[in-house]
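Lecture notes, continued. The same structure-token format from the folding unit now serves as the input rather than the output. Read the line below as a description of shape only.
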């Protein structure tokens, strides 16, 4: 069947879009315990200058230790994703699941004493504010962390990974929740369907963290 030039161009666009999507899907994969070192490195670099987590853990080694605990625990859920060999990573907690086990939670206070020293009470207060702001219902996926390695910034990998994950979450018909630790990112999340539902301040009251919700969307 012969095609008009307009129809032909349309089909070419569809093929190109499909090829791009296939390439993205091919580069996105679930992380496992063997990826923990790379995940910690990527997320430490991503959040080192973050106005919230950089404040909580100014020393990169302390931040890396903290991420190893959180990410190492989250891996048990099978919902930690990477793109392009851990150039960017997304840590999700599935509906109804805890971010850490009870044994891991017991490690938090003594660990913060070692990592934050005299500032440990402030960091503990920050974690308490996260917990207080987190909605208990309805069941939802929780985006605990999303970050891109500094060497790969500016390529859109973080948002590409987020879109990939949200497509799967939408297929389940489940909402999603996150905290935006950097106000500069709020608009990016809004473009992916999140809306601000509240917030809380850093313990020194110098930064407001937005809490954001996304209802499932039809595709």
């Amino acid at each position: 069947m012969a095609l008009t030039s307009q129809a032909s161009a349309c089909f070419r666009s569809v093929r190109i879009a499909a090829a791009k999507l296939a390439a993205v899907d091919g580069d996105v994969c679930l992380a496992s315990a063997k990826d923990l070192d790379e995940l910690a490195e990527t997320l430490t670099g991503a959040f080192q200058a973050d106005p919230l987590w950089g404040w909580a853990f100014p020393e990169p080694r302390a931040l890396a230790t903290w991420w190893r605990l959180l990410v190492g625990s989250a891996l048990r859920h099978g919902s930690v994703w990477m793109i392009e060999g851990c150039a960017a990573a997304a840590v999700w907690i599935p509906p109804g699941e805890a971010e850490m086990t009870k044994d891991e939670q017991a490690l938090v206070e003594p660990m913060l004493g070692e990592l934050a020293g005299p500032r440990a009470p402030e960091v503990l207060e920050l974690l308490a504010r996260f917990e207080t702001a987190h909605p208990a219902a309805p069941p939802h996926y929780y985006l605990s962390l999303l970050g891109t390695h500094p060497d790969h910034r500016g390529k859109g990998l973080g948002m590409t990974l987020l879109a990939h994950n949200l497509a799967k979450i939408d297929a389940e018909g489940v909402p999603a929740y996150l905290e935006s630790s950097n106000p500069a990112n709020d608009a990016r999340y809004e473009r992916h369907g999140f809306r601000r539902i509240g917030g809380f301040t850093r313990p020194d009251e110098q930064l407001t963290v937005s809490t954001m919700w996304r209802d499932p969307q039809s595709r």
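Point for the exam: The longest strand covers residues 141-148.
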